[in-house]
Amino acid sequence: MKEGGRTLSELAALVGAELRGDSTATITGVAALGQAGPDQIGFYASTRYREQLATTRAGAVLLKQEHADACPVNALVVDDPYHAYARIACQLHPRDRAAPGVHPTAVVAADAVLADGVSVGPQAVVESGARIGPGSEIGPGCVVGRDVRLGENCWLAAGVRLYPGCSVGDNAILHSGVVIGADGFGFAPGPEGWHKVPQLGSVRIGNDVEIGANSTLDRGALADTVIGDGVKIDNLVHIAHNVRVGAHTVIAGCTVIAGSTTIGSWCVIGGQSAITGHIEITDGVTISGMTGVTKNLDKKGVYASPLPAQPVRQWRKNTVRFTQLEDLFQRLKALEKALTALRAHPPEQS
Amino acid sequence: MKEGGRTLSELAALVGAELRGDSTATITGVAALGQAGPDQIGFYASTRYREQLATTRAGAVLLKQEHADACPVNALVVDDPYHAYARIACQLHPRDRAAPGVHPTAVVAADAVLADGVSVGPQAVVESGARIGPGSEIGPGCVVGRDVRLGENCWLAAGVRLYPGCSVGDNAILHSGVVIGADGFGFAPGPEGWHKVPQLGSVRIGNDVEIGANSTLDRGALADTVIGDGVKIDNLVHIAHNVRVGAHTVIAGCTVIAGSTTIGSWCVIGGQSAITGHIEITDGVTISGMTGVTKNLDKKGVYASPLPAQPVRQWRKNTVRFTQLEDLFQRLKALEKALTALRAHPPEQS
Amino acid sequence: MKEGGRTLSELAALVGAELRGDSTATITGVAALGQAGPDQIGFYASTRYREQLATTRAGAVLLKQEHADACPVNALVVDDPYHAYARIACQLHPRDRAAPGVHPTAVVAADAVLADGVSVGPQAVVESGARIGPGSEIGPGCVVGRDVRLGENCWLAAGVRLYPGCSVGDNAILHSGVVIGADGFGFAPGPEGWHKVPQLGSVRIGNDVEIGANSTLDRGALADTVIGDGVKIDNLVHIAHNVRVGAHTVIAGCTVIAGSTTIGSWCVIGGQSAITGHIEITDGVTISGMTGVTKNLDKKGVYASPLPAQPVRQWRKNTVRFTQLEDLFQRLKALEKALTALRAHPPEQS
C-alpha cells in the first residue's frame, strides 16, 4: 500500500492497542525497525533488537507495555506485538487479486459452478461438476478436477492441481505446484510384481489452510486423508494416504508423513522430519527438525533425534563407534562386574 | 462402480477363489470390513481385525482357508486376500478415463504420432516426433517433449513433464508434477565457477511403472537413467542421473538416490532414505525409512540407520555424548587395561 | 552434433590444449572412453580407467601431461581434463533452442517487454510488467508473474513458475516445476490459530544459476531471498525465506535450508542435508549428504553427521544404546572413580 494508508488510531483499533503518541499519523506500510521510515510501522518483540528500537525512525512501533517507555516514536502497546504486526501487515499489504471472471484461454466445464467474484486465470482448467466458492481465485495453469469442492476466498497460485473429488474449505492458500489427491502409494505384492490397490478415498481440507509450493497430499485408500482447520504446511511436504492432521498443526518443509498416521492439533513439526505410518501423535507435540518418529507419541512435549554436524574426521570415528555401541555396553557391564568382584575379593599381592 | 457390478462367481473366477455361499450375490464395490454393506466385498488378512470379521455386514469377504469358518457371510477363499482384493478393486472401480481425442486447446505437433484411442487433455503440449501408444491418456497441462516414446495404456495425470527423448513403457501411471528427463546435476569446477556438463543421456522407463506426484527422474550424463519393469516410486522422490533401478523395486516418498548408483530388483526402500552415488545395492534389499546408505550392500537383508525421536532434554545430552564416542571408547579401553593390571599387580594396602 | 563438428585444432584452441596427433581430425561429439568412436572425444581423469584409455578407439582424448604418453590415439593435453571436456561438450552438443517468437496459445500481457530473440512457448503466461532479456526462452506452460525481471540467454524449461516481482540474472537454467517466490512460511501464533505474516520481500537470483526440477525458493518476509552468481541447485531443494546463498555454492538434491540462514560462497552441500534457520555458514564449507547443521559453521572444512546403514538387528540394539548414552557416560565416570579409589585404598583381603 503506497497511497492512503491508515491512521494510527485506526490501526490501534484494529489490533486493540493502547496508542501512545500522535493518533493522526498516517501509516502506509510495515518495515523492519532498522529500515522503517516515518510512514511505516515496525514491531519490537525481543530485547536483542534494543539498539534498533532506540534509533528507529519508524512512524510507530508495536511493542509490549514493558518496553513502551524505551520507544522514541509513536507506540502501539499490545500483548503480542508479532501477532498484531501480522494483522496490520495483512491490512496494509493485501494480496493483489486477479480481476473476477474467466480468462478466455481457460477451459471451464459447462456444469462447473463458479460463485460470484470467482477468477479463473489463463490456461486454467476447471472440470465437470467442480464448485468454486465466492471470491476464490484459480491461478494460471491450475487444474481443478471433476467434482472438486473449493470454499470461498481461496487462492490457488499458478499451477496447482486438485484431483477429482477433493474438497478444500474457505480461505485456503495453495502455492504453485501443490498436488492434492494423487493416488496413495498402495500396492499388493504378488509373484509377478506389485498390483495397484485403487485409492478410492479423497482428500478433505478444512478452512484457513495454507500449503507450500510443490507439496503433495495423497488421497485415501478407502477412507479420506483429512487436514484440519488452520493447518499450515510448508514447501515440498509429502502427506500420504489416510493421514489425519489436527487443527492448527504446522508442518515445516521437506517433511514426510507416512500412511494412516494421525497427528493431533496444535503440533509443530520441524523441517525434514519423517513420521512413520500407522502411529498416533497426540495434541501439542513439538518435533524438532530432521527428527524421525517411529512410535506413538502420547505425551505433549518436545521430541528430537538428529545428530549435529561434526568435522568429518571426528564424525567418521564416532559413527564407527556408534555401530559398536552394543558391544561397548557389554564391555562396560563386564567391567562393572569385575570391579565389584575385585572389591569383594581382591587378588593376593604378588 | 454403482450399477451392474459382478456376481460372486464372476469375482471368484477372476481371482481363482473357492466360493463359499451365494454365488449369485451381486457385488458393486469394495469397502473396509467394518463399513461394508451387502453389495460390497471386503478382505480379512490379519487377526487384528477378528472383531470386524465377526460382525461384518459385507456381501462377501476375501480370506484365507484357515479363517473361512469364522466368516459370517459369503466368503471367497484365496491364498493372498490382499492381492485378490487389489485385483477385484481394480475391476469394480476402474479409473474414469478421458474420452479419446485431442482437446481443442491442446497443442500437438504435426509430426507427433498418436495411436488409436489416445486422449490429449486441455492445455497439453505434445512436441515434434513424439509417439503415444494406443489408449494412453495425456492429462491437462502435460508437456510431452520432442521424440518422447510413450507406450500403450499409460496415464499421465495433469501437469506431467517429459523432456525430449525420454521413453516410457506400457501401462505407466505418472502423477501430477512428475518431471522426467531434466538435466542431471553435473558441473565441472573451475577457477571462475562451475561449468555445466551437458547431460546427453536420456531416461528409459520400463512397463507397469507408477511414479508419484512431483517426483523427478533426471536424464543421464552420457548413458541413460534406467527404471525397470514394475517399479513403483512414491511422491517427491529424486532419482539422479545414470541411476539404474531393477524391476519391481519400490521406493517410498522423499527418498533421494544419488548419481550412478545401481539398485537391484525387488528392493524395498523406505521413505526419506538417502542413497549415495556410485554404489550398488543387490537384489532383495530392504532399507528402512530415513536410512542413509553410503556403501555397497552386497547381501540381501534389512538395513536401517535412523535414530528414534527422544524427549528433547534426553536427546540433547545423548547427542553431546555421541560427539564424544571415540573418547568414550578410549576411556573404556584404558579402564579395561587398568583393571587387568590391577588384578595382576594389586597395590599395597595403605 | 552429427554434421560438421570441429577439427581437433579448433577444439585445442577452445580449451587451450597442447595437441598431440592429427590436428585435422574432425570430432562431432563426446563419449565415454570405452564407447567413443573415431569421430568422438573422451576424457581421462582417473587411473581407475587406465584400461579404457589403453584400448580406446576415440578420435581424441583429453588428459593431463603425465598421462599423455599412455594415450594410443590423438590427445589434447590440459591441466583439467574434466573441465575441458565440459566446455567441448557444450560446444559440440548445444541445447536445441525453440525458435524465437510467441506461440499463438501463449498469453503475454500487452505491457510485458520481450527483448530480441525471446521465445515464449505454447500455453505459457507472461504477466503485466514482466521484462525478458534477449535470447531467453520461456518453455511451454511457464508462468512469469507480474514485474518479473529475467536476464538474457535464460532457459525456463516447461512448467516453471515465477511469482510476481522476482528477478533472475543472465544465463539462468530453471528446470521444470521450479517455483520461485512463493510465500515464505511465516505465521504468528494466536489463541485462535496461526495468523499469516505477509511475505513482502522478493527473490533475487544472480547470473549463471541453474536450479533443478521441482525445487522451490521462497520470497523473503521483509528483505529478499538472495542467490549469488554461479550457484547450482539440484532437484527438490527447498530454500526458505530470507536465505542468502553465496556465489558458486552448489546444493545437492532434497536439501532444505531454513529461513534467514546465510551460506557463504564456494560451499558444497550434499544431498538431503538440512540446515537450520538463522545461522551462518562461512565460505568454502563442505557438508556431506544427509547432514544436519544446527549451529554456525565458522571454519572452512568438511562436516558430516549421518549414521551409516546397518543390518537391522544390529541397528536396533545400537539405537537403544544411543538413547542410554548419557547414562553410559555416567557409569563410565563412576567406574573410573572407583578404580582410582581402589588403587589408592585397596580393600583388605578376605
How would you sum up this structure, described in words?
The structure is a homotrimer of 350-residue chains. With 350 residues, chain A is of the alpha/beta class. Chain A has 3 domains: 6-92, Udp-n-acetylmuramoylalanyl-d-glutamate--2,6- Diaminopimelate Ligase, Chain: A, domain 1, CATH 3.40.1390.10; 101-303, Hexapeptide repeat proteins (UDP N-Acetylglucosamine Acyltransferase, domain 1, 3 Solenoid); 312-338. Chain A has 5 helices and 40 strands. The model of chain A has no long low-confidence stretch (mean pLDDT 95). Chains in contact: A-B, A-C, B-C. The interface between A and B is large, with 78 and 78 residues.
Short note summarizing the structure:
With 350 residues, chain A is of the alpha/beta class.
- N-to-C terminal Cα separation of chain A, in Å? 92 Å
State the domain count of chain A: 3
- Major sheet summary line of chain A: 11 strands, parallel
- Rg value of chain A: 27 Å
β-sheet strand percentage of chain A: 25-35%
Major interchain interface with per-chain residue totals: A-B, 78 and 78 residues
**Large-scale geometry of chain A:** flat
What ranges of chain A have pLDDT less than 50 throughout 5 or more consecutive residues?
Answer: none
CATH superfamily annotation of the largest domain in chain A: Hexapeptide repeat proteins
Helix count of chain A, per DSSP? 5
Structural class of chain A: alpha/beta
Indicate the CATH class of the largest domain in chain A.
Answer: Mainly Beta
What percent of residues of chain A adopt helix (DSSP H or I)? 10-25%
Number-wise, the strands of chain A total: 40
The CATH topology of the largest domain in chain A turns out to be UDP N-Acetylglucosamine Acyltransferase, domain 1
CATH architecture of the largest domain in chain A: 3 Solenoid
The oligomeric state of the chains shown is homotrimer
